[in-house]
Amino acid sequence: MATISIRVSAAEKVWLQRMAEFYGLSLSTLIMTYSFEQLEDTYDALIAESVYKYYHAKDQSTVSMAQVLAEFGGGDGHKL
């Protein structure tokens, strides 16, 4: 397993340790988990924006979730 070091102030370290205790995680797990989640969320948003721009540039149209549900029976009580 690889090791990555980060530098934080003493106050930041105390705060991170308190957050780790609050969540019942080790400091390493807290930083890794929340770093990856933030990066994944940002990546997902950038990909969605890119695809949205691509579809509009190609004159592709999108439909709302309400339209999908109406077309495929979701509006009459059926679950997808």
UniProtKB/TrEMBL annotation:
Organism: Levilactobacillus lanxiensis
Name of this chain's protein: Type II toxin-antitoxin system RelB family antitoxin
Superkingdom, taxonomy of origin: Bacteria
Family matches, as InterPro entries: DUF6290 (IPR046257)
Gene (name only): relB
NCBIfam families tied to this protein: RelB_antitoxin
